[in-house]
Amino acid sequence: MNQQDQPTNEVKATQPSVGRLAVPVWIFIVALLLGYRGCVHVDQAGGAFAFDARIYGPYRTPKELENLQPTGDDGGYKKGEAQYQIYCAGCHQAGGGGTPGVFPPLAGSDWVLAEGPNRIIRVVLYGLAGPVTVAGKSFNNSMPGLGEALTDEQIAQVLTYVRGSKDWGNKATPVTAAQVKAARDAEKARPSGKQFSQPEIDAIAVQ
Amino acid sequence: MNNGPFLFLGSFVALLLSWLGLVVVPQVQLRDLQPVKNDTTGKYYPLQRLGLARQGAEVYRANACYTCHSQQVRQEGYRFRAVLEKVGTNETELATALMKLNPRWQQSDAELFAQAEGEALTDMEHLTLQQKASLEARFDSTKVSEYGAKLRFDFIPTGADIEVRKWGVRASVAADYLYDDPLMLGSQRIGPDLSNVGNRWPEAGWQLHHLYHPRTKVEGSTMPDYRFLFEKRRIGAAPSPAALQLTGDLAPADGWEIVPTADALALVAYLQSLKVTEALFEAPTTVAP
Q: Which pTM was predicted?
């Protein structure tokens, strides 16, 4: 038994009392403010939690709604997006970012965003091989040509999507089937499947 | 009452937060709503109610129609359905193209496909957005369009309100109520939803007879008669063209007729103005081919 447990006859002058709050109020206020800031951040960072006054259930994202709008003449943009997912996204990725060091990016690529689609049409038609420089980075890989597999229209659609993809921030002019046909005719002498190299592409007029 | 100021502050903060969340934040989010122009028809939606329809909204309010009727269509989801719009000239190519969409179909079905112009394809009636996109791309990757064949994908909003009860074609959204003041959304559905009643029962005569005695138009209706919106009066020099055509027990005595009052006509004009079919960005109705 220690000293404290001894009964005592002393009468305390005042009774012990409990304060109203064991924790200072300002801690709650700071926590609330931090929580609020966190919610604002999640809201602005996008993703599934982002608030958009145009979204009502059962729809979830603006992107989803865009896909459901009546299809006016979008120059084949939406169809191109579907083609892209089938033929291109395997290497260049759904977001157009490519794979660093292996597959060049299409988003923000100087090849894609050239003033005219002349060169990029030929890349899709015949493919591309050997060392290339895209957006300041070097790549050395082999892309097969898709000229046999796709029609002029499909190539035009997929390039319209790649050059104008709103998701990637690309804003180059759309491509028409006539432009693809013109490129095919101009390269008639070229054996199908013979891939282009960077020097050959550079020799071709941009527009 | 030692903690008076503290309690006051607490309840004040509680009220302040609800006011912020229920009034201020929605106001900030939705204050920029504007009527939108339909590029096809050149008309704006929504439009303000004018004249009789506007007065009718007051009659609707005064009679508390919103107690039993809601004005809000719910939508649970959406789907697509593939329709063979044109079969084109080459049956074999078409069958090959369609076999890419569904492996269960066979080349021997070519003749069936050739007769299916304008029809929805079986097994292709509940497509998701992803399925639709991949089927569309697969169909496009064939050369069948050179022979004039065309596949269309119908967009269909789904939900019991839309498909079973047929109360509307899409979900109701904030823009639909832009000019409604006060908002009479309703909270109970003792009667059917009225957000689209102007399309369902467009005739004024139907509405008037229904208001006078709902059972004449809808069997087993539990809606009360709104006879005080009508006037029973002696036929003057000639019967009024607006008089109700009533038979049996409801028919007034000879020399008398039942005519709608101004309130009844206004209410009917309001009901006729209730139409929610316009496609909006936030509430698409159908994707045009």
A: 0.69
